[in-house]
Amino acid sequence: MNQGRNFPKLFTLALVVSATLMLSSCASFYQKTIAVQENIAAGDFQSAIKELEKNKKWPENNHRVLYYMNRGLVHFMLGENEESNSYFNMADYYIEDYRKSIGTEALALVSNPMVRPYRPEDFEAIMIHFYKAFNYIAMYDYESAIVECRRINIRLMEFNEDYKENKSRYARDAFAHNLMGLIYQATGDYNNAFIAYRNALDIYENEYSELFGVQPPQQLKLDLLYCARKTGFHNELRYYEDKFALSAPEMLSGKGDLVYIWMNGMGPVKSEWSLNLTNMGVSGSQMIFGSNELGLSYPIFLGNQSASSQAQLKDLSLIRLAFPKYVERPLAFSEAQLVHGNQQYKLELAQNINGIAFQSLKDRMMREIGNNILRIATKQAIEQITRNENENLGALVSIMNAVTEKADTRNWQSLPYALYYTRVQLPAGEQTLTLQQRRIQGKVENEDINVKIEAGLTTFRIFHQLESAPLPAGSY
Known about the structure:
Blueprint: H1 3-41, H2 45-54, H3 64-77, H4 81-96, H5 102-110, H6 122-138, H7 142-161, H8 174-186, H9 190-211, H10 218-231, H11 234-244, E1 255-264, E2 269-283, E3 286-291, E4 296-301, H12 307-315, E5 318-327, E6 333-340, E7 343-346, E8 348-351, H13 353-389, H14 391-404, E9 418-427, E10 429-439, E11 444-453, E12 458-465
Parallel strand pairs: 1-12
Antiparallel strand pairs: 1-9, 2-3, 2-5, 3-4, 6-7, 6-10, 8-9, 10-11
Helix pairs in contact: 1-2, 1-14, 2-3, 3-4, 4-6, 6-7, 7-8, 8-9, 9-10, 10-11, 12-13, 13-14
């Protein structure tokens, strides 16, 4: 038997079976995801857990990482910190253990990326460590929280080392250093706090301001000055006081600090867009696909293809690619502040997760577009080979190619849009503050916050404002 000549038929059967299984499982996944996200957005976390537990296969299938990330987040919102970290540890394990599988990679080449186990975007993997740090802070395990903050920038460095070209511009995390400084300061380690704040300032000034529109928070500057004074770094203190035009604050006797972190809104969701590229010819061992209208050209290497496959690839005139894209969920609240007595403390933007998401996906698509072109071109070349042998079979392959050409639109949808924070110095004892949240339309909504302050110590509070504005009609 000539196995080469029978390959199109075997491929077609495999494609039909895999497409049917894949599409049915995806429908179930999205149906479950919608229910979970609606419960999270409504603050009904117990119902979210029940929805997550309905499908017993979730922790085992290609979406297992999303299952564990959502379980970790829901338990975080419930204040169940140890349980939350146990799920985040599982998610982190699968991210660390992620390896390319020959079977799923080959199937993805002739179907679409949804058949692969979900590999989170870099920033999603990073957010796991932020949540673990928040959990450890809530448990007063500051040492473990510091470890998670350190891991953030180590992971970002490791991710970028794997990228041979089109490096990720989200290569350092300013808020990780900022949070590390807040924790060090809370433990009285002002030397390391100063170093962490200085690193955060550098990233805010040189990367975040341009990439994500996040300027160095005023609170960061004040904390940097405070730690410089406490450490006795007189030269650095004078330098930064001149640079910021500020004076170092002092901790008054009988008072303690409240560090309040406000998570605002919900992060973006993934949708799909497509791009048509034409065959612009062959140059050496490369074939060029591109768009004169958009000024784009992308080479794909033909050397690994058989002679017959190369011939079929060269005959292709047009290919259509499906890509994931983020759709922003507009904010319902534009800003917030804490009020205590006659004093107001503005919550300052420190982490633009929405902006990081868009930049991270853009960088990844630049790295992967060549593989995507090869994937589509291979599918269409197989379609042509099949048509040459059997017109009806070729038509079936054409239909299945169209059905399976989908972008991978999985993502961690329960993340916040952005993080804000401030520090408030308060008298020791039970204190009541007011959180004033201003809606986009201008209306201010007040909520009381009760905290117990200990003299000379720092109290952390984290609150997620889950409400967001509706997605634009037809955007998702």
